[in-house]
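Q: I'm building a small set of examples for a reading group on sequence design. Run inverse folding on the following structure and report the sequence directly after it, with nothing in between.
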């Protein structure tokens, strides 16, 4: 069995060294740890492979941003439709639903 020998101590001058990460993080981004399904990772890694390179984490970030923007657009459209229908007495439940509830309760 081969014995592993540690390197002898080298004289390294750390007097001008700076603390902190070697590579500064991008502004507006936060490093996190997240658990994803294997199928999700495989999907995004496959997309990167088919594209001939890139970063699957960037693709996941882009997909999440697109979902947020789509959701906010959908919410805005719903609000506009509600406001447009308000003068006609349209509310969350329609008249037939309210009548049915009164018959059941009454």
């Amino acid at each position: 069995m081969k014995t592993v020998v540690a390197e002898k101590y080298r004289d390294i001058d750390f007097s001008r060294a700076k603390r902190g990460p070697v590579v500064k993080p991008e502004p507006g981004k936060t490093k996190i740890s997240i658990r994803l399904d294997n199928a999700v990772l495989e999907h995004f890694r496959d997309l990167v492979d088919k594209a001939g390179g890139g970063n699957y984490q960037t693709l996941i970030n882009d997909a999440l941003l697109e979902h947020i923007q789509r959701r906010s657009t959908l919410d805005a459209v719903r609000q506009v439709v509600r406001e447009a229908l308000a003068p006609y007495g349209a509310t969350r439940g329609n008249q037939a639903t309210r009548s049915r509830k009164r018959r059941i309760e009454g």
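The CA atoms of residues 56 and 62 lie 10 Å apart.
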